[in-house]
Write a structure and sequence with these properties.
Radius of gyration: 35 Å
Distance between the termini: 71 Å
Oligomer: single chain
Low-confidence stretches: none
Strand order of the largest sheet: 6-7-8-3-9-10
Bound molecules: adenosine-5'-diphosphate
Shape: elongated
Structural class: alpha/beta
Amino acid sequence: MKSLRLITPYFSENRMTILLGLVCLVAVDILQLLIPRVIKFAVDDLTAIGVDAQGLGVYAAQIVALALGIGALRYVWRRCLIGTSRVVEERLRNRLFSHLQGLSAAYFDQAKTGDLMAHATNDVQHVRMATGMGLVALTDGIVLGTAAVGFMAAINLRLTLFVLIPMPMIIFCTRLLSRKMHRLYQETQATFADMTEVVRERIAGIRIVKAYTGEKRSKEALGRISEAYIERNLDLVRVTGFFFPMMMFFSNLSMVIVLFLGGRQTLRFTISPGDFVAFIAYIGLLTWPMMAMGWVTNLIQRGKASLDRIDRILSTAPGIVDPPDARPLRRSRGDIRFESVSFGYTGGEPVLADIQVDVSPGATVGIVGPPGAGKSTLLALIARRYDPDRGKVCLDGRDLRDIRLSDLHEQIAFVPQEPFLFTGTLAENILAGRSADEDKLPLAARDASLLATVEEFPDGFQTRVGEKGIMLSGGQKQRVALARALLRSAPVMLLDDPISQVDTETGARIVDTLEQMAPERTMIIVSHRLAALRFADRILVMESGRITESGTHEELAASGGFYARTFRLQRLEEEF
Ligand code: ADP
């Protein structure tokens, strides 16, 4: 139960609320048990013809008062106990999310997004159910269950023992079927999520669907998943449809026993008619605590398993951490050095082998090479998304591992190969949280050759880009990412294939801007279009994780290696 420590602070923080909730819950149980007592006295008075209309009114008023009390107290315990479980859920989810945000890129390389989503939703929900309804079911099962049996035993012990015979079946069946119902419910939810995804995907890709006349196939895909969804729902209905009548059956079986045995005892005056009626009412009250006892073990087991899974994530230490007592780094000179760096992704082959690079402040370095050569990985190591396995990467002569992460990220503007846009406006996506720089938006957009496009949109910078920037073309997204980086005026700029998705003319304009900005910062540009590197001071060629050539454009073009071949090919393409 090590993982329990994750939630105990929330319990102790809210202990008074929980205590109040439990007191109200127990009070509700007691008040519920008093109603059959009132009925008993009313019936006994009626059979003895010892009550008039006014007397009956008093009994009725007592029941109304009890019902009102039950209603009010039930409201309070729901607020307190279920409310606290919601607080636990919220805190746990926030903690999980903050922790996930702190984990390194290597963790996300091997973790599946779907699994992480499931931990943040299902697992957290299971913990909420265990701490909320689990606590309620446990208390009700014990308090209401034993008290109801106690009240019944006080009337007649023998009859109580007989009446209890079918009750273990309720506990057993609830335990068995609630597990099955939960599994089916999860499957139904998963199928619903799949169905939503099919609709979302087909709508997002409607142009492709239409272009390839895929409407019929889309309709069939949706038809299949809808059918599966109905099937899952029917499976669930079959079990729930069986479960509740079965519970009623066992409860009615107890009723039959009361009617037969209790009836005979009433005839023999062993118990009064009022006791007989009260007995029947107690059986009605006993069904829920019996079900609760069966349910609670499942709730707690499930919650515990989920809490263990959450605990495992929370115990994963971030691979990339801030050094203790790091000297602050205000503004870097932009001096980057790789000293015999080797690196491989988790458990994989080396992707970078013995890399030795020296980029002096203010220099522009281009990197070319075939796909998979390790170019993006090299940039990722400068941004310290990963740490090298051997050797070190330095900024201004300091190992990146000795620089505070927030300081390092301030020094680097990174334009990734596949820009990611968040749902929101263009302005929000370019600013990326730096709202103080709003006045610089038009300039950054102009430099990224995005301004003309923005001006074409009726809402300008306030245009909503849709989920993952679906409203924008690949080239537009790339330019948004570029504008985002330009806005930062960081001393180091890393660009991963910045003109891969724009036309030649736009590409040339972007390269002009980069050239103008180059003298003020250190720039490393990865590009498979050599035109983007025409102003680079030096170009590196990477092949299979190694730097195989290094020199100026002229030197490399004359060398007859990868660069020269690529240059000749691209020139031929341009001439055509
Ligand atoms: P380039 O940018 O030159 O195309 P990359 O640096 O993207 O090359 O990739 C170099 C090698 O590392 C490739 O073999 C690629 O499959 C692998 N790789 C890239 N990213 C990851 C990752 N996140 N996890 C595992 N392997 C990766």
